[in-house]
Amino acid sequence: MKLLYRPLGMLIGALGGFLATAIFGQIWKLVAGDKEAPSATMRNRAWTEVLMAAAIQGAIFGLVKAAIDRGGAKGFQKLTGEWPGDEED
């Protein structure tokens, strides 16, 4: 059963990436007032702006990934009765 979860988990993870990108874009607009967050190689952006954008983006992606992964595992467990992830020792 756990093998069935892998492709499903990958699909859910990809959807989570799209969701995280959309959330980050909206938050960046609110925080910085810019339509586009700076990338590390944009010449005219300050270090603080680039690093702040990266920190916010990383936090959002981590949060969305954890929520999506956990929700997917819980849903899989409800459907199959088997936990698809790691077990604590």
Describe it for me?
This is DUF4235 domain-containing protein. 73% of the residues lie in helices and 0% in strands. It has 89 residues and is mainly α. The longest helix is centred in the C-terminal third of the chain and has 34 residues, at 47-80.
Question: What is the element layout, followed by pairings?
Answer:
Elements: H1 2-32, H2 47-80
Helix pairs in contact: 1-2
β-strand amount: under 5%
Work out the helicity level.
Answer: over 70%
Report the uncertain regions. Answer: none
> Which structural category fits the helices and strands?
mainly alpha
The biggest beta sheet is recorded as:
none
Helical segment count: 2
Overall average pLDDT: 90
Morphology call: elongated
Rounded to the nearest angstrom, the distance between the terminal CA atoms is 21 Å
**Tally of extended strands?**
0
Rg over alpha carbons: 17 Å
Secondary-structure element string: HH
Could you write a compact summary of the structure shown?
The chain is mainly α.
Structural key phrases:
elongated; 89 residues; mainly alpha
